[in-house]
Design a protein that fits this description.
The protein is α/β, with parallel strands linked by helices. The protein contains eight helices and seven strands; from the N terminus they run H-E-H-H-H-E-H-E-E-H-E-H-E-H-E. It has a four-stranded parallel sheet, with no helix packed on it. The two termini are 27 Å apart.
Amino acid sequence: MSPSILWELKAQGVPVVYHLNDFKLLCPSYNMVGSSGTACERCKGGHFHNIIREKCYSGGTRASVVLAAEAYLHRWLSTYERCVDLFIAPSQFVKQKLIENGWTRSRIEVLPHFQSLALKQKPHPGMTAPILYFGRLSREKGITDLLHTMQSLPHIRLLIAGEGPQRSELEALARKLSLNNLAFLGRVEGRSGKIDRCFTIHCLSVARL
């Protein structure tokens, strides 16, 4: 959805709460991860042309130009500053990054992600149980670091559940590292016995930032 709708909401007097699901306000490619896969803040201060120079957006040069132009336009119009009443950040880290980039502290509140499912205690699966990564396979998740780590853990198996634009790159890296303790499960529907017997990893989200 285009940010231009914010102006219509403003004109109609509709209060706007903007949930920060990504870093779009700071980085036109949304994730603050450079082409090398490391943390990147080159667009800090509104230097959005760096998305083109660094080639960090997987959609290609033309798409990068469009994203940079959109970012410059709405910065010039002060779209978000003038049309959004309150920003919701999922963590203190995200709030701090916005503040570092000049956003008003008092207009940002932190509301962590949450879930209301009952906690189920399960028997310890044992120290040699497989490790499970589940989620989108993309550069900002830090999965390449996980694969390199598995080289030193040949006695433990890693299961990767999910799909994403980085899958072929990760499969190539696994072959290069000769990882025989790794399996790509793809998209997993419903419950799986393989998953139930694993340790799950909950800390690989916006890795390296």
